[in-house]
Amino acid sequence: MIQATTSSVQDFLYQRVGFQPTEAQAPLLSSDKRFVLVAGGEQAGKSMVASKFLLKRFFELPDGEPGLFWLVAADYERTRAEFEYLVEDFAALGLLSESTKRVDPGKIILADGTRIETKSAKDPRTLAMRAPHGIVGCEASQLDLETYYRMRGRCAPKKGWLFLSGTFEGSLGWYPQMHSAWTIPTEDEQSFSLPSYSNTHLYPGGIEDPEIQRLKRDASDDFFMERIEGIPSPPEGLVFMEFRPNLHVQDVKWDVGTPVHLWMDPGYAGAYAICAVQIIDNVVHVIDEVYERGLVTEEMIQLCQSKPWWQDVQFGVIDVAGYQHQAMAAPAELWMKETGLYLASQKVMINDGTERLKSFLKPDPITREPRILVSPYCTGLLSEFGAAPSPFDGQTRAYRWKTDRDGNIVGNSPDDKNNHAIKALIYGIVENYGYGHVQNRNSIPVKRW
Predict the structure, then answer these.
(1) Cα dihedral angle (46, 2, 30, 166), rounded to 10 degrees?
(2) pLDDT given for residue 406 in this prediction
(3) Are 139 and 118 in contact (CB under 8 A)?
(4) Could you report the per-residue pLDDT of 261-301, keeping only the tens digit for each?
(5) What distance in Å separates the CA atoms of residue 70 and residue 150, rounded to the nearest whole number?
(6) Dihedral through CA 312, CA 313, CA 314, CA 317, nearest 10?
(7) Helices 174-182 and 145-155 meet at what angle, rounded to 10?
(8) In what order do the strands lie in the sheet containing 260-265?
(9) Cβ of 344: how many Cβ atoms within 10 Å?
(10) 108, 135, 195, 249, 292 from 60: Cα distances, Å
(11) 172 CB contacts (<8 Å, ≥6 apart)?
């Protein structure tokens, strides 16, 4: 098999299939990173580029080893463009053995036995099969964070690659945050922006093309940046701008035998949030959550008791209001009565607690690792950080500062909503580690000998 390790071979290959990369497409197609993310403007040629990236990587397989590649999207239909481009390309190269007409699911089989299969994120079981050599995430901005980590995990056994392409559906969520984080390349990761006007086949004038200039005049600045430039334009006011999915979200799992802490903020109409936490090597691992709306404490207890990690629960922390009687038994008393679990509690001021959580999100200056890691399955907590949609309605509901109509932050405290799991984290961190600074004192007491 051809070893496509030089630009000349790559150019020859693309010439054979009638493809000429634009100036903006060439760098990302030449990237040798294992994890590549492309944020494209509308009609920027993302599907075309994704198919050509897979085509190039196919020719990098070791001699005599049939490959396995996946096209993954939120549903099968969103893989169609890449699938059809690949069928055309391999047919033009004389390498196509067979292909399905349908994409739900679809498969392409090449002459050497290599398979290219479509996968739907709606059925997680399709992502749990034999590990592929490479994965293309089609319209990846519409995939959830859990699917991203499934794909990344499936790349591990064969040290495969992952190519993600999509148009921003807004500038909150894991996809734009990952794009921003990978703008500065790491050893394995790199992100690119592919503006609409870089597709000179559609817009011969580039950025000065009359149609692009019309869009720039008529659209809002945020829309133009996100949907045309392929650059995230996050709104002002996120409380925890320090939270980065590529750094803080990891597939942390229950470590059997290690004590589990339940940190909770009880609620009803907003959310009743419980974070299941293990502290390992002085790092907070949020291994799971119970994040529900409209359930009372007895029902939340039952949900927790059904979890496999319940056998290791030893400690708990609750909002100070959890000891208040509001025409019913206090939540903390119910936990003690039903489970025997004592819940510690203390009053935490909003801004002091916020600063303490930020100190845990900050990477260690030596190890470059944060002191808190979150499982991708904790969608309630991730939604409050702005890294995932709300599990209740699928909308963006992040913890934010109060802002005026121009997006300027007003007041000294954040808006007290979309923060239930974050509050639970703060209560637990303050209870276990303190504030880390002198707290609201005009004088410092000392012992006299």
Answers:
(1) 20
(2) 65
(3) no
(4) 999 999 988 999 999 999 999 999 999 999 999 999 999 99
(5) 13
(6) 150
(7) 50
(8) 313-318, 260-265, 272-280, 283-292, 372-374
(9) 15
(10) 18, 14, 28, 31, 47
(11) 234, 235, 238, 386, 387, 396, 398
The continuous run of DSSP H or E covering 176 comes out as helix 174-182
Joined together, the tokens standing for residue 405 give 């109509």
For residues 89 and 71, what is the distance between their CA atoms, to the nearest angstrom? 16
Q: What's the confidence (pLDDT) of residue 235?
A: 64
Predicted confidence (pLDDT) at residue 439 exceeds the cutoff of 70: no
pLDDT digits (tens, 9 = 90+) for 101-144: 999 999 999 999 999 999 999 887 778 778 999 999 999 999 98
In order of their start, the domains of the chain are 7-229 (3.40.50.300), 245-433 (3.30.420.280)
Give me the amino acid identity at 391: P
Tokens of 251: 């597939």
Contact 343, 336 (CB under 8 A): yes
Close Cβ partners of 412 (under 8 Å, ≥ 6 residues apart) = 351
- Model pLDDT for residues 309-340, shown as the tens digit of each residue: 999 999 999 999 999 876 678 999 999 999 99
Low-confidence winner among 19-28, 91-100, 163-172, 438-447 (lowest mean pLDDT): 438-447
Place of tokens 């410092």: 444
Could you please report the per-residue DSSP string of 286-332?
Answer: EEEEEEESS--HHHHHHHHHTSGGGGGEEEEEE-GGGG--SSS--HH
Residue 137 sits at φ, ψ, to 5 deg, of -90, 110
Lookup result for tokens 């709300």:
390
What would the pLDDT profile of 193-206 be if each residue is shown by its tens digit? 999 999 988 999 99
Q: What does the DSSP 8-state code read for residue 115?
A: E
* Amino acid identity at 217: R
69: nearest Cα among 122, 13, 112, 8: 112
Q: What does the block give as tokens for 46?
A: 């993302």
The pair of three-digit structure tokens given for residue 163, joined into one six-digit string: 């190519």
Long-range contacts of 77-81 (CB under 8 A, 24+ apart): 77/103, 77/104, 78/138, 78/139, 78/142, 79/103, 79/106, 79/118, 79/119, 79/138, 81/47, 81/48, 81/51, 81/138
